[in-house]
Structures are given as C-alpha cells and as structure tokens.
Amino acid sequence: MTIDPLLSLASFGIGIVVGLTGMGGGALMTPVLVLFFSVPPLTAVSSDLVASAVMKPVGSFVHLRRGTVHLGLVKWLCIGSIPGAFSGVLIARALGRGEDIQQLVRTALGVALLLAAFGLIARAYIRMVEHARRRDGRAGPLSQERPDVVLRPWPTIVVGLLGGIVVGLTSVGSGSLIIIALMVLYPALTASQLVGTDLVQAVPLVASAALGHILFGDFKLELTTGLLLGCIPGVWVGAHLSARLPGGLVRRALAFVLLASALKLLNLPNTETGIALLATLLVAPVIWMLVRRHYGYPAIARRNWANPKS
In the chain, which residue ranges form alpha helices assigned H by DSSP? Predict the structure, then answer.
C-alpha cells in the first residue's frame, strides 16, 4: 500500500482548520483531492466520508461530556439523515460509474460548496444580530443551561433527510449546511449547543454515508489511510490552537477558500474565477464593515490577542 506524503500533509492542514472551527472537513478535503491530487470525484467523496466517520466521534464525545448536546433533536435529525445519506450513495450508484456520473458529482460538490460558503456568512450574520439584540436588551441573557426548546419533528426530519442526501452525494454538509438550518429552526440554542448537537448527529449520518460508499461507492483504502495519517494529528493541533486564534477570522478565510473551490469545480474559466475572487476580496470586507456599523459595532473588530476568544 503506497501512501502519498503530500496528501497526508494537505490533510494535516485541513485537520487544523477542522479543529479550529469545527467545520470544513468534507468541504475542504474533497475539493483538494479532486483539484490538486486528480482523484476522481466519486473516489474522493467515498474516501473522505470513511475518514470523517473515524474522526467525527472524537469531537462528539467532548460535547456529550460537556452537556452541550440536545439528544431529542439528534434523534429527529437522524431519523431523516441516516436513510438520506444512504440514499445519496444509492442515487450516485444508480446514475452509473462513467464520466457522466463523475461530472455530476463534481457539479453537485461545487453547488454544495457554494451553499456552505454562503452558510458560513449567514451564520456569522445571525450571530452578530443575536449579540446586538442581547446588547440592546431585546433578548434574554446568555445562559449556561440548555434552553427550553420546542421540538419540531417534521421540519427537523426533512432537514436531516435533505442534508443526508447531500452528504451521501458530495461528503459536504454535515458540519456546515445542517447547522445553518438548525440555527433557523431552533434560535434558542446557544452556539456551543448548535455545534455539539450538529456534531453528534453527524456521527451516524457520516457513518451511514461511509458504509454506503464502502459497499457501493469507490472507496480506496490507501487514500483513506493517507487522509487519516494527516487529519487526526491536525485536528488535535487545531483544537489546541482554537484557544489562541480568532475563530471568526479563520471562518472568513474558510468561506473564501470554499468559494474558490466551488468556482473551479463548476468549471468556471480561470479569468472569470480570478475576477470573481478579486471582486469578493475588494467588496465583501466593505459590505461587512457597513453591516457591523449598522448594528452599532466598530467597522473593524478590535482583537484582544491575549484572549482572542473574548
């Protein structure tokens, strides 16, 4: 079995991002495999999902011990997401294994990455609005106890089902798309509870998708092993760095990388891709500063580098 050391090095860097933000595993790993290592899209999705199935339980145990998981919500999500993830694999298999299915998976992955990038922006905006409401006394204070959440079974099952299908097809969505839907459905959940609940429900979701890809996908053991050799220590390093680096800055960089990857996967020509990314770099910070000013914050956030999480 031959393992590419460059692949393990790249997965180490992606593992650091995952440890820092709790996001970006499938959203970064699969496009890196496709764009930089010329791995066929279906093979990249299969191997990435199996690697994620090994990594996901680690973070979920931490959140379970801290009590930042709403198990009732996890149950309803899994009722939809587990069959949805397996169905996503079966949909990919039913479409065949030729060049057409590889292109379909590549396009679906590009669309999923675009949604994930905009989801990160929406997540940051919703958090800022929530903080502004608390600052202005229009919302209750933050509580360390789990708030009373009225479960909405059918909408939650639908979110799990659709998210599972997307994950089964593209490996993207378990840590980005679903959490945005949870923020909209359950605004009473705190940020840590959103992350913890999403991470725990992602364990059976990704395991179901991984099993489907092992049985019916294009799983490669040597590729997955190379990913795990880099990702596992990378996640450990990222988790330790998360106490020192500003997570918001990392998430904005992640959104830009996801946008760039999405445009390439959607086969946008290099010139148009460059123009779109340059425009994003020039315009997006200005818009974000105006939004911050609108909600009464300084245009540029002041960093306390001695305690960047404050």
Answer: 5-21, 25-36, 41-66, 71-94, 99-135, 153-170, 177-185, 191-216, 221-241, 247-265, 270-294
Q: The pTM is what?
A: 0.77
Q: Which amino acid is at 165?
A: I
Per residue in 41-72, pLDDT (tens digit) is: 888 888 888 888 887 776 677 668 778 788 99
Residue 198, token pair as written in the block: 């999403």
Residues with Cβ within 8 Å of residue 164, at least 6 apart in sequence: 80, 81, 82, 83, 84, 85, 86, 87, 88, 205, 208, 209
Sign for the CA dihedral angle at 231, 234, 236, 241 comes to negative
Sequence-separated (6 or more) residues with CB below 8 Å from residue 117: 255, 256, 258, 259, 262
Is 8:226 a contact under the CB 8 Å cutoff? Answer: yes
Domain that holds residue 32: 5-139+146-267
Total structural domains within the chain: 1
